[in-house]
Specification:
Blueprint: H1 2-11, H2 17-25, E1 28-31, H3 39-49, E2 61-64, H4 80-89, E3 98-99, H5 104-117, E4 135-136, E5 146-147, E6 150-151, H6 169-186
Parallel strand pairs: 1-2, 3-4
Antiparallel strand pairs: 5-6
Helix pairs in contact: 1-3
Length: 187
C-alpha cells in the first residue's frame, strides 16, 4: 500500500518525468483482473497512459481486462466505482459472449434465471452493470459432466429458504452460510 501511495503522490506532481519514464519503458500494459483495481491504482495507470497535453487522447496501449460482476469481492481491493470510471474512459470495449468453462445446460439455466428475475445485478434500477446472456462453447459438452458416475442432468439447483428471513445482514449471512454448508454435507 505504501508503494502505491508513494507512486500516486509522485505522479500527481505536474512534473511528468516519472510518468514519461514509465511510459517509455512500458508503452503497452495489460492489466488482468482489472475489477480488483482501486481508484488509486487506476489513477496511476491513467496518468501513465493518458496524454497530459490533451488530457483526452491515450498514449500507448492500456488494456484492462475485468469482469464487473466480480468487483463485489472488496476483500481483494475491488472498487466498482473505479472499474466503472475506467470503463467510461476506455476508447473501445470488447465483450466475451462465449463461456468456455461451463456446460451448455448450466449456461442455459443461468441465462434462464436472469431472464425470469431480471437482468439487473443491483437493487438500484439505474445501475450500469447488467447480466448479459452468453452462449456455451460447443466443446464443453463433448464429455458430459458426471456426479458419482451418473450424467448430471440438472447442473443448477435453486434452494429456497422456507424459514423467516432475518432482517439484519449479519444473521442473514450466517444463516445462508449454514444452509450452504448443510447442503454440501447432504450432497
Amino acid at each position: 500500500d505504501a508503494l502505491i501511495e508513494r507512486v500516486a503522490r509522485v505522479l500527481d506532481d505536474p512534473d511528468t518525468t516519472l510518468a514519461d519514464a514509465l511510459f517509455q519503458r512500458w508503452p503497452v500494459a495489460l492489466v488482468d483482473e482489472f475489477q480488483d483495481t482501486d481508484a488509486q491504482q487506476y489513477a496511476i495507470l491513467d496518468t501513465i497512459y493518458r496524454d497530459r497535453d490533451t488530457g483526452q487522447l491515450p498514449r500507448g496501449l492500456l488494456v484492462m481486462i475485468g469482469d464487473p460482476k466480480q468487483a463485489i469481492y472488496r476483500f481483494r481491493g475491488g472498487d466498482i466505482e473505479a472499474y466503472l470510471n475506467a470503463r467510461t474512459t476506455a476508447t473501445s470495449t470488447l465483450k466475451l459472449d462465449t463461456n468456455f468453462r461451463s456446460s451448455a445446460s448450466l449456461v442455459g439455466a443461468i441465462n434462464n434465471v436472469f431472464e425470469r428475475a431480471g437482468m439487473a445485478l443491483s437493487s438500484k434500477r439505474d445501475h450500469p452493470i447488467m447480466y448479459e446472456n452468453v452462449v456455451a462453447s460447443s466443446r464443453n459438452d463433448k464429455e458430459p459432466y458426471r456426479t458419482s458416475g451418473k450424467i448430471c442432468a440438472t447442473p443448477l439447483h435453486v434452494h429456497y429458504w422456507h424459514e423467516d428471513v432475518p432482517d439484519a445482514a449479519s444473521p442473514r449471512i450466517s444463516a445462508a452460510l449454514e444452509a450452504c454448508a448443510n447442503q454440501i454435507v447432504d450432497l
